[in-house]
């Protein structure tokens, strides 16, 4: 684990700063009031960009995007990243619906107080902990950053992107800072175990597939990714 963290130091640099900030606000203001501090800082011109950026944390959109962007370059990396998204996403949803199902979102906790900044019809009320978007974003980008860990700039940019997408969950009034922090940690740790234990298996079986069959798989996955992207653009946030 220590080597994994060190190898991802450029990716983790902005994330660690973000986590320290969230931890400080949680200690200083508490679980709910720390949300009011962060959510209370907003600009109308940022509302729509934040709504678009939060798409990157959706597991379907994120998986489709990774397929379209990286499938031709490194299919093994894409499969490991998608596996990480699926596993951590499932754990996050299990925690939301079966363990912390009574943890409501800010719009429910502060109902009638007019204290929450939210955008348009993007209104969520239940299943707050942990943040699923923060989980899957951290999981996917950790895998990608690890595969390009010998570089410096791109892992750092991926770390910044993880921070921004995670922050949109607070900005849009969807999650408390503690939800986001827990989601990021779950995604990062989940990515580590996926890379360590599943990546060799995925690589072994994928490399055994014949070239023709692999090309058919890639075409099918590309087509499925395009369909997902089209559906999400037609029916955003549904």
UniProtKB/TrEMBL annotation:
Coiled coil, from the record: none
Span of domain Phosphatidic acid phosphatase type 2/haloperoxidase: 77-195
Key word Membrane present: yes
Tagged with keyword Transmembrane helix: yes
Domain of life: Bacteria
InterPro entries: PAP2/HPO, PAP2/HPO_sf
UniProt keywords, alphabetically: Membrane, Transmembrane, Transmembrane helix
Name the record gives this protein: Undecaprenyl-diphosphatase
Species whose genome carries this gene: Prolixibacter denitrificans
Lineage start: Bacteria, Pseudomonadati, Bacteroidota, Bacteroidia, Marinilabiliales
């Amino acid at each position: 684990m220590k080597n994994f963290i060190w190898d991802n130091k450029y990716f983790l640099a902005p994330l660690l700063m973000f986590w320290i900030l969230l931890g400080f606000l949680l200690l200083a203001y508490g679980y709910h009031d720390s949300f009011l501090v962060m959510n209370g800082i907003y600009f109308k011109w940022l509302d729509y960009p934040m709504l678009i950026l939060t798409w990157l944390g959706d597991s379907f959109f994120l998986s489709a995007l990774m397929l379209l962007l990286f499938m031709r370059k490194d299919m093994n990396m894409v499969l490991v990243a998608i596996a990480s998204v699926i596993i951590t996403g499932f754990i996050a949803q299990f925690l939301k619906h079966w363990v912390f199902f009574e943890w409501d979102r800010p719009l429910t906790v502060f109902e009638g107080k007019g204290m929450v900044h939210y955008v348009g019809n993007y209104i969520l009320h239940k299943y707050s902990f942990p943040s699923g978007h923060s989980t899957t974003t951290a999981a996917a980008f950790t895998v990608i950053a690890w595969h390009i860990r010998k570089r410096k700039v791109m892992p750092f940019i991926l770390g910044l992107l993880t921070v921004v997408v995670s922050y949109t969950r607070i900005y849009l009034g969807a999650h408390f800072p503690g939800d986001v922090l827990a989601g990021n940690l779950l995604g990062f740790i989940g990515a580590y175990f996926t890379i360590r234990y599943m990546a060799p298996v995925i690589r072994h079986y994928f490399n055994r597939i014949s070239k023709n069959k692999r090309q058919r798989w890639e075409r099918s996955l590309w087509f499925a990714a395009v369909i997902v992207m089209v559906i999400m653009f037609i029916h955003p946030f549904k």
